[in-house]
Write a structure and sequence with these properties.
Isopropylmalate Dehydrogenase; 348 residues; 3 domains
C-alpha cells in the first residue's frame, strides 16, 4: 500500500478528486489517501492557505494527488500552486498530451510531452509596485528606461536550473524512447535570460547525441503547433512560456478536461491536471474527471504500479471511444461527472 497525500482543492476539485478516488478504489489500486487542505478551501476552513499539517503530510508521504487551487486574478494572495512547487523544489512540470480514442480534434495522432521548468522565471513572483523604492532604483539603473510609475517583475533564469530541467528532458526522452527535444524561448529579445536558457540546454544536448535537438522561438512555436503538431515530440520551455504552451497543446487533444500533469522533484512528486478550479462550472456535476484521472495514472506509474495504471487507462479509453457516457465538454449530449465515473468503473 502507498500512502498518498490527497488535496481535493477548490472549485471543481472536490468533484473530480471524488471521481478519481472511486475509480482507483474499484480498480483495487493499492493507495491509502491522506486528505489535507490547501488554497482557498484551507483559508476558509483552517484560516491558513497552506496549513502546517498539509506541508507535513507532503514532506512525509512524498507523493500527492492534487485538485486545482484558485488564485485571485490581479490582486489577493499569491498562487499556492507556485508556492508548493518552489517549497518542495518540484522543478519539472511534465505534461504528456496525446490524441485519445473517440476525441474528435483538428489533428490525429498528436503525441507531445511539454516539459516546463517549474521553479523560476517570472513565476518567482518578485514584483515591485509603481512608485516603490525598488522601482525608483530600477529607474535609475536603467537610466530612465523603466518609468517610476511602472510595475516591475523580475525574470530570473539561472544556469543551474536550466541545466537541471534540460537533463530531466533528455533523460525522459531516453527512458521513454522519444526521439527529439525542442527548446523554445524568446532569446532574440531576452538575450540574457532566455539566451542563457537556450545556451544551457544546448550544452546538455551535446551529451545526448542519439536524441535530435532543435530550438524555436516561442511565438513561431505557437503557430507551428496549430499548423502541424505532429512535427513535435518533447517541448522544453522556461516556466511562463511552458504554462501558456501547455494549454495550447491541451487544446489540440480535446481541451483542458483531458490534460494531465505532474510536478516532479528529486525525491517528491505532486500530480495534478493542467486545468484550474473552473469556478464557472463548479458544483454542477459537469466537470470532466479525465485530466485528473490521467494524472493519477501517471502517479501509479511513478509508484511502479504499472499494471493497475494500464487497467484504469484501458477503462477510460473504452468510455472515451464509446463517446456516449462522457461529460458535456466532449459531447453536448453527454452525461454528468458521476455518470461518467460510473461508466469508467463499469468498464474496469
Ligand atoms: P480553468 O482551467 O479553471 O478553466 C478554463 C476553462 O476550461 C473554463 O471554461 C472551465 O470551465 C474549463 N474547464 C477546466 N477544467 C475543466 C474540466 N475538468 N472539465 C470541463 N471543463 C473544464 O482556468 P481559469 O478559469 O483561467 O482559472 C480558474 C482558477 O483556477 C483561477 O483561480 C486560476 O488561478 C486557477 N488555476 C489553478 C491551476 C492549478 O491549480 N494547477 C491551474 C490553472 C488555473
Amino acid at each position: 500500500m502507498h500512502l498518498v497525500t490527497l488535496i481535493p482543492g477548490d472549485g471543481i476539485g472536490p468533484e473530480i478528486t471524488e471521481a478519481v478516488k472511486e475509480i482507483m478504489a474499484s480498480a483495487k489500486a493499492p493507495i491509502n489517501w491522506e486528505p489535507v487542505l490547501a488554497g482557498q478551501t484551507a483559508l476558509d476552513n483552517e484560516a491558513d492557505l497552506l496549513p502546517l499539517k498539509t506541508l507535513q503530510s507532503l514532506a512525509k508521504n512524498k507523493v500527492a494527488l492534487k485538485g486545482p487551487l484558485t488564485t485571485p486574478i490581479g490582486t489577493g494572495f499569491r498562487s499556492v500552486n507556485v508556492s508548493l512547487r518552489q517549497k518542495f523544489d518540484l522543478y519539472a512540470c511534465v505534461r504528456p498530451y496525446k490524441t485519445l480514442p473517440g476525441i474528435s480534434t483538428c489533428f490525429n495522432n498528436v503525441d507531445i510531452v511539454v516539459i516546463r521548468e517549474n521553479t523560476e522565471d517570472l513565476y518567482k513572483g518578485v514584483e515591485f509596485a509603481p512608485g516603490s523604492a525598488e522601482v525608483a532604483m530600477i529607474t535609475e539603473m536603467s537610466r530612465g528606461m523603466v518609468a517610476t510609475d511602472a510595475a516591475v517583475a523580475i525574470k530570473a533564469i539561472s544556469a543551474k536550473a536550466s541545466r537541471r530541467i534540460a537533463k530531466y528532458a533528455f533523460e525522459y526522452a531516453k527512458t521513454t524512447g522519444r526521439k527529439k527535444v525542442t527548446a523554445s524561448a524568446k532569446a532574440n529579445i531576452m538575450k540574457f535570460t532566455d539566451g542563457l536558457f537556450n545556451g544551457a540546454v544546448r550544452e546538455v544536448a551535446k551529451d545526448y547525441q542519439d536524441i535530435e535537438y532543435n530550438e524555436i522561438l516561442v511565438d513561431a512555436l505557437c503557430m507551428k503547433l496549430v499548423q502541424d503538431p505532429n512535427k513535435f515530440d518533447i517541448l522544453l520551455l522556461p516556466n511562463l512560456y511552458g504554462d501558456i504552451v501547455s494549454d495550447l497543446v491541451a487544446g489540440l487533444v480535446g481541451g483542458l478536461g483531458m490534460a494531465p500533469g505532474a510536478n516532479i522533484g528529486a525525491k517528491m512528486a505532486i500530480f495534478e491536471a493542467t486545468h484550474g478550479s473552473a469556478p464557472d462550472i463548479a458544483g454542477n456535476d459537469v466537470a470532466n474527471p479525465t485530466g485528473l484521472l490521467l494524472s493519477a495514472i501517471m502517479m501509479l506509474d511513478y509508484l511502479g504500479e504499472n499494471d493497475i495504471a494500464r487497467k484504469i487507462e484501458r477503462a477510460v479509453y473504452t468510455v472515451l471511444k464509446d463517446g456516449k457516457e462522457v461529460t458535456k465538454d466532449l459531447n453536448p449530449n453527454g452525461v454528468t461527472t458521476s455518470q461518467m465515473t460510473k461508466a469508467i468503473i463499469k468498464a474496469l
